[in-house]
Amino acid sequence: MKPPRAPLALPPLIARKRDGGALTDGEIRALVAGAARGTIPDYQLAALLMAIVWRGLENRELVTWTRAMVDSGDRLEWSALPGSTVDKHSTGGVGDKISLCLAPLCAAAGLYVPMMAGRALGHTGGTLDKLETIPGFRTALSPAEFRRVLTRAGFVLAGQSARLAPADRVLYALRDATATVESIPLIASSILSKKIAEGAGALVMDVKVGSGAFLPARSQARALAGALIDLGKRLGLRVRAVLSDMDQPLGAAIGNAAEVREAIDVLRGGGPPDVRALTVRLGAEMLVLGGRVRELRAGATRIEAQIASGAGLERFRLGVGLQGGDVRAIDDPDRLPRARTRKVWHAPRAGIVAHVDAGALGRAATFLGVGRLRKEDPISPGAAIILHAKAGARVERGDPLCTLHYDDPARAHAARPLIEGAFRLGSTAIRARPLVLETLG
Amino acid sequence: MKPPRAPLALPPLIARKRDGGALTDGEIRALVAGAARGTIPDYQLAALLMAIVWRGLENRELVTWTRAMVDSGDRLEWSALPGSTVDKHSTGGVGDKISLCLAPLCAAAGLYVPMMAGRALGHTGGTLDKLETIPGFRTALSPAEFRRVLTRAGFVLAGQSARLAPADRVLYALRDATATVESIPLIASSILSKKIAEGAGALVMDVKVGSGAFLPARSQARALAGALIDLGKRLGLRVRAVLSDMDQPLGAAIGNAAEVREAIDVLRGGGPPDVRALTVRLGAEMLVLGGRVRELRAGATRIEAQIASGAGLERFRLGVGLQGGDVRAIDDPDRLPRARTRKVWHAPRAGIVAHVDAGALGRAATFLGVGRLRKEDPISPGAAIILHAKAGARVERGDPLCTLHYDDPARAHAARPLIEGAFRLGSTAIRARPLVLETLG
Lengths: 441, 441
Fold this sequence. Notes:
The structure is a homodimer.
Chain A (H helix, E strand, L loop, with lengths): L9 H9 L6 H13 L4 H14 L3 H13 L14 E5 L7 H11 L4 E5 L9 H5 L11 H11 L1 E5 L6 H13 L5 H14 L4 E8 L8 H18 L2 E8 L7 E3 H12 L5 H17 L6 H13 L2 H12 L5 H4 L9 E6 L4 E6 L1 H11 L15 E4 L6 E2 L4 E7 L2 H14 E4 L9 E5 L1
Parallel strand pairs in A: 1-4, 2-3, 4-5
Antiparallel strand pairs in A: 5-13, 6-9, 7-11, 8-10, 8-12, 9-11
Helix pairs in contact in A: 1-3, 2-4, 2-8, 3-8, 4-9, 5-11, 5-12, 5-14, 7-14, 9-10, 12-13, 16-17
């Protein structure tokens, strides 16, 4: 006679992981399914997650964990589309509006981009918050709407469906509340489970490096890139990872409506050179992965052509319209919201800008209302920081370094010390950091 | 303007411990108080506890943590008693009935022993479960009853009051459910917070080593002993630690009523030599700590004298009576419960007993009903394993190795493989392991 047992006795399993052992496939499937169904107490999951942050997951465990997250919900399927589905995902940055221009450009170049995006989190911006500054734009789409927009526009930019990888949603909320987000295998499985569930055939990962990145150190970024590529390989998803600079913000605009404006500038053939360059590079990677071109150079040419011809802008207009957005805001960005007050920040002395700290500016922007201090906070769509000088620029005393746009003066006041510390002025010329540090996969 | 904040933001604090940093005294006090009051979510406490298992607590943190646990409830005070209060605590073992004879013997020798004991947990026995086999004996005492019994009998053996160190109760239950028990600092603070709250002036720790111990490895036992001594010093509680063997069970009896009988045998001057020897040794340590004698040798003599004179037995009778127990069961142990069925286990061949595995026999005894497979299980007061041969004994084929006493034949069947594996027969004489391995503090 065996002793009576609960279906899954958690403490011995947590103890095994705590002591550096491995979980069986059956245990992992029961755990992930139990998390999704809410049948495993939060406190046991929390202890297990911290043990995983400590001990990691071996390859087999990670594959099973990720598959179980995919299996916890629906899985979209795009084989009937007349082209490859390729997605791009970024680990999050400050001023990163690349998705907004990249998705329609790739669609114009023949790919299908089923992009599920997120909201502002910590000091990093959220693609959904940016898009929602376009009057009428809806990010919560039904599966049928998602399919219709993707089929017709070639891209879709929507919120994560609650029916895709629900286990990830539960586990992510718990990780966020228990300081167990920072685990390479858990991050990799969270990202890839959603991409596999959304039916992407290939994925370009933009892994940020620097003060504004979620994982600031290059070694961490490289470890995550490697984990994503390896896990993708085991799960049949082609992943290519680009490590890109996030030591200073991308482009000039940090702010929801302001970044939509900057993305439109890029689609019109203008915009800041770094935003345009990274868009072209990531688009080229996507075209190679999707089999539209053989080489990056050809991919870059193809993306540049979609900018030059206006085809990318046209796709953006089409997609925004299909998602309920007012397309007049694209042709006349003054229709996008602006904050009530602006204040210019001047250089205290002459010099050469040695560093513009993305992390500090991201936090300052959050204070202004670009992001949320708490999950339930509303965002301020017009709040922004617009940079007038980036690393390497020579400024005279009194030259504008940036302009703050805000609705609430008290919040602007709170952002002051962060902005003061964000600009470092030197006296010698600096060598520009490369935008793309390396590519893996 | 500072951003609005919750009184204690847990994730950054958990992240700091996760990354090897330290918590401030204020944070620790808020955490422990919040745990006691139930204002901190279980899942955040669970993640923090796992991070502490991983990263440990530094001395200052541990002192503050322990003080905060004491401060979460009442604290007893015995300065009006005409003698020192000294307690003994064991990390738990198989067949460990030492408290039952030790407390009345030390009381007879002039100490006051305010002992709060526990219940069977895992494969280790529980002093309360043993005492409750004496008809009428009550372990749940009010503070006034506790004081009255201690004052009159010189010792009291009761359950942990819910009013002492309530934070420890909450945290222990959570640790048990989340595999976060195994942390030297958390174990040390759990033990000492209760001893300080119960008002003990000094403490002898019996730290078990071997297969039947909670921490089997000698290195772990030594680490715990060192942590207890050091933490005691910082908190003003004198602690002396004895590392004693728990590779084989203590004495011959494993079982609740059976162990009460064996303890009475020791108080009458008989009983197994190891139980008597450890009782005398720990009693001698307590008398030295309590200032009744200068040296261990004198302490041992004093304890032996309480056995020889019957004073210890008389004290036991007094204390049991004051706690509602039927003292006739002490004079006539046949009044203690016995199980319905017995079965003798025979040696399969001749040889010398090389090892009697305390861990395996503890688990086998739990199956028989000595302990609990689940917290809500009842125990079987008469269930027992009585050993007829211990390490070093020479046996012939068919000699009895042990006798199982049980009420439920199915449970006895489940215990079979464990008992089969518990006795290792060799062919060469073995050197007896010392009972006391070392003393610290």
